Amino acid sequence: MKVTLAGATIDxxxxxxxxxxxxxxxxxxxxxxxHSPKTIPExxxxxxxxxxxxxxxxxxIVYRMGHNSVAEHAVFNIDVEDASRLLVEFIERHxxxxxxxxxxxxxxxxxxTYIIPDEVAGTHLQERVMELEKEKFELYRxxxxxxxxxxxxxxRLLEQARYILGLTCPTDLGLTVNxxxxxxxxxxxxxxxxxxxxxxxxxxxxxxxxxxxSLVKYTEGNFHVQRTSDDISRVMEGMARFEMDKDGKxxxxxxxxxxxxxxxxxxxxxDPESEVVAGLIFxxxxxxxxxxxxxxxxxxxEQLMDLLLPVFKNYPVHSSxxxxxxxxxxxxxxxxxxxxxxxxxxxxxxxILSQRYDPCLWETPEIYMEDPALLMRYWALMKRSRDLYHxxxxxxxxxxxxxxxxxxxxRRVVFKLNLREMYHFVRLRxxxxxxxxxxxxxxxxxxxxxxxxxxxxxxxCGKDRFGEGRGRLFGCEGKYGPEEGEMER
Length: 489
Known about the structure:
single chain; 489 residues; alpha+beta; Gyrase A, domain 2; 3 domains; 5-stranded antiparallel beta sheet; 4-stranded antiparallel beta sheet
């Protein structure tokens, strides 16, 4: 794994000057802006001319006065090379950063090797891990090279084949992140149970702290987070009393046949659709929110729809809906593979709670079901991954054991988001360009919404069906009907 500082925000005065450049001057200039009558160029002149003073100013404002957002004006561009999928998941769980990752959906990874976890390297388990990972790559390369499968799956070939690749498979990503979030990532990473993540955090610290010492300053590991989690787990183990069935097995608390489950209504609102409309009324009038709610709750469904239709008519497919749609919160519960989770975790404005990957639960892509021999080999490798997982877990714990699982192995997640964000999610994930698995999950979420909340879900669809949905909604509605050419925009 390699971490390289590729670039950073610097004042343009440094562009042609033979002087050391630092993004700290931008932060210092903007920090002073709120308290100074000087123009922004003048403030930047001051910061560039006295870098040491700018650094002292940053430390005072960011750390003593607590204006941490000032550090967000300094931005780093980081190359991350040869990172395992588990490391990538750690990096990309941070919301206030931007990532572009080499995609296994579009790039052939058959020439890649695999990462041996530090915790396993040099132990009696290393050979077992290496053997298993080699066989995963062999099956992957065989599937990708099959002419009959190329013809049938075409541009979905790599997307389907990648499910057998291990979480040890390395990839590269570009990371753009501000100094405040950089410091947070480092402090999280240094306390992480995986050695690879800790090495990444150490490398990130080395790449950035020297350039901006006044902004990437307090990077001690957040060990209290892990300690708290461990303490809670121990208390839970002591308190747990699981209900058992007649065969002595633990009863499931969820319906395993229900892949996507919408939660009960938010406790503070018994009519979430009218709550969205109340928000629209509030923003468009001088009524209080309580008056807006009272009005909305006394409207018929037809009247509520009359207030929703202008939004569905006027907002184009690529635009976020009004913030009034954030008045409705939704919670979904489902299992998803590591490949699907790679898509899900990109929705950083949602709340995602996840369990560890289940070694006994995996997705079987359509491509492996084309040939019984392929299917048997796929399942055999999945089972061997499961068995080796348990061996490693016994010696090194669950975190390390996850390395031998695959992109196909699943974890259970809770996915909480507001209606506005759900429209964004569905636009992307129910579109025909989306990955098969996450599209299936998104479509099930849409189906759940259409049954329970048909008014606000009237235009909940992928981008590819936006025109069709709008035509269906407005085809007979003269006063709200789309103008000529509206479908094509």
